[in-house]
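lol ok so funny story. i was supposed to be doing the assay writeup but got distracted and ended up predicting the structure for this chain instead. priorities right. anyway since i did it might as well share w the group, maybe its usefull for someone
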Amino acid sequence: MTNSANTAAAATKGLKAAILPVTPFQQNCTLLWDTETMTGAVVDPGGDLDDIERAIAEIGMKPEKILITHGHIDHAGGAAELSARLKVPIEGPHLADRPLLDKLDQQGASYGMMDSRPVTPDRWLEEGDSVTVGGHTFEVLHCPGHSPGSVVLVNRPQRFAMVGDVLFQGSIGRTDLPGGNHAALLEAIRTKLLPLGDEFAFICGHGPTSTIGRERRTNPFLTGDAGSFYV
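and the output, tada:
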């Protein structure tokens, strides 16, 4: 395994993940695959596409799609180009993030990420939809607040979720960007993520993995101890 990608068991029963930090934002691009078929998906390819393709080759994964949790540059900036390279469709996020995806080239220019391209997904995702990764089904939860169209992907049988920038270890997604809504984000976490159960593990868009139980007990934004800061 390449030193740039950290492999971790995402869950049991054959579903695994490799986390590859990409872009100057060190965003967690995640490769998800089934260990029997090696078929999987690339989640949030924000950039550094050569590194992503090297990790795919080293794992021996056969990408079948790209999944996008939301429309910010560090998560979606490389999706259009990677889709063309791999010849796979793009699914997600929610349609509410279309204005962000339409202007990814402008977002990229602002941050010196000149290879970013606008994205039109092959499939928009809505609350209650499902997506499959290597034969494993993930339920779609629409969780606005960090962005209007943020989605969380939940595999209930294996108690595992991809949460994008909705929830982090010890923090939550920032809401001071265009379309952000602090109250909506907390409401989504409290009504959609916390009810999943304490045993649920998740991969977030930045930083280390965590569990719902850990965040319920220790995350200052959920315990009421947070000040006016974002990580």
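The longest helix spans residues 182-193. The CA atoms of residues 45 and 79 lie 6 Å apart.
back to the writeup now i swear
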